[in-house]
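Hey, sorry to bother you again with one of my protein questions. There's a protein on my desk that I can't quite get my head around. No rush at all, and the record is pasted right below.
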Amino acid sequence: MARQSISLTAPNDKWLKAQVDNQEYASKSELVNDLIRQARKQQAEIDWLRAKLDNAEKSGFTLQTKEQILAEAKALLNG
């Protein structure tokens, strides 16, 4: 695993320490890695949604109901 050195603002460091102190995470590194994973997942969801919107704008109308579209989106987001 790559080792990094980062600087944190005082409020961010305090928050990280609180999460570790509350035993939500074993270490700040574990928490930072989890936050990065969450951000990556969120970005993937945003990219997927943008692609769907772009395709929808280019394709015109759909025969799917709003319920079908919502179910498809939820299924893809939940893996």
In short: Residues 10-77 form one domain. Residues 28-59 form the longest helix (32 residues).
